[in-house]
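thought: fold this chain, then report.
action: predict
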Amino acid sequence: MGLITEIRARARFVVGPVLGICAVGYFAYHVVHGDRGLIAWWNIKQRVVAAKEAATQTRGERQGLEKRVRLLNPGSLDPDMLEERAMLMLNYGYKDDIVILQERKRRK
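observation:
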């Protein structure tokens, strides 16, 4: 009986710190691996950087297309652009033209 009473007497002083250590471990784990933890934050940060790069590239492509569309505006029609589009749409070329075929980019 002496052993059981000794365990009970010391258990009072051990249970609190053990529960505290378990609580700290639980929260520390979720700070790193949780839905809003450090790893999730790092992944979101990488996705934001990739999205900004894609937005910059798309903005450049859009500006190029807007420039080409402005050149085809009826108020300020560029004869070279009109000739280029007509030759492309009608599959037409001069005798001395060198034609280089390129693969079209596929949109995802």
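thought: worth noting. The two ends are 76 Å apart (CA to CA).
final: tokens above.
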